[in-house]
Write a structure and sequence with these properties.
The chain is α/β, with parallel strands linked by helices. About 40% of the residues lie in helices and about 20% in strands.
């Protein structure tokens, strides 16, 4: 047995790529990771997330990759606060923004109003619960960082593909995206579980007859934090610790690690050199 991302693959010299159960391995890996994709979690963090995105170059970098035409309709699955959505909406006919979090959708509406963007409609739903007939087919479908916590992803990939008539764009964790989280888990004495990354998705798409283009999304902006409290909040959220009470002793360990490893910038914000973004863009033309 050969381990991959915490999941063991049986060795078989006659095994073909299409014989490997990538969907099953994805599910097994997700079971071990903290559950993060739920409405309440995103509702709670929505307004802070909106602030975090103001210093992140990811939305701009992704939006520039997406093929846009004035007559295009776009479906944005897991739109968050609209940081990608609104950049795309400025260059197309219409965008349907979908998110499980009502608070996030309210932020999209607010941000759209501030920028004078009106060519939007809104659907509150998770990707899994989305009714394809209700939203209909769009020229372009975007799934920006929104597929990582979905079980039985292979079926959802089929649905995403069917919803697009021209292009699909999705971003998934890269292989080196979690170094900072590994360090945090080590300090806290909690077990770190490798989140399934883009290679699972590439192989599931291949098994579906979809031969996606693969690009490392070139993002340079690491998260910057206002102060130690901001770091504590954001790290707890990323690791799913904000859903449980952190004991005083554990909190002290985390504070000491974050104080020791922080690099203070000239503007007073805190930076962590190992907290690098690593997102992979998968896209294909229909």
């Amino acid at each position: 047995m050969v381990p991959y991302g915490g999941v063991k693959i049986a060795q078989n010299v006659n095994m073909k790529p299409e014989d490997i159960d990538w969907n099953g391995m994805w599910n097994e890996a997700l079971k071990k990771a903290p559950k993060k994709d739920n409405k309440q979690r995103w509702d709670k963090i929505a307004h802070k997330f909106n602030e975090w995105m103001k210093t992140d170059d990811y939305p701009q970098n992704l939006a520039e990759k997406i093929h846009k035409e004035p007559n295009y309709t776009v479906l944005d699955l897991g739109c968050g606060n609209g940081s990608v959505t609104l950049r795309v909406a400025e260059n197309v006919k219409h965008v349907t923004a979908v998110d499980m979090s009502g608070e996030m959708l309210e932020l999209v509406k607010k941000n759209a109003k501030e920028r004078g963007i009106e060519n939007l409609s809104y659907v509150q739903s998770s990707v899994e619960d989305l009714d394809p007939e209700a939203v209909g087919q769009h020229d372009v479908v975007i799934a920006s960082r929104s597929l990582g916590g979905i079980y039985n992803l292979k079926e959802e990939l089929k649905k995403v593909d069917n919803l697009a008539s021209k292009y699909v764009y999705m971003t998934i964790w890269g292989a080196n995206a979690r170094e900072f989280e590994k360090e945090l888990c080590s300090v806290m004495g909690t077990q770190y579980h490798q989140h399934p990354d883009y290679i699972y998705v590439c192989n599931m798409l291949y098994q579906l007859g979809i031969y996606a283009n693969v690009e490392i999304l070139d993002c340079e902006s690491r998260p910057m934090y206002c102060d130690l409290e901001d770091v504590m909040d954001r790290c707890s959220w990323k690791l799913g610790w904000n859903t449980k009470k952190i004991e005083d002793e554990e909190k002290k360990k985390l504070e000491n690690f974050l104080k020791t490893n922080a690099v203070k910038k000239e503007d007073g914000t805190l930076d962590y050199p190992t907290n690098n973004p690593d997102w992979v863009l998968l896209w294909w033309k229909k």
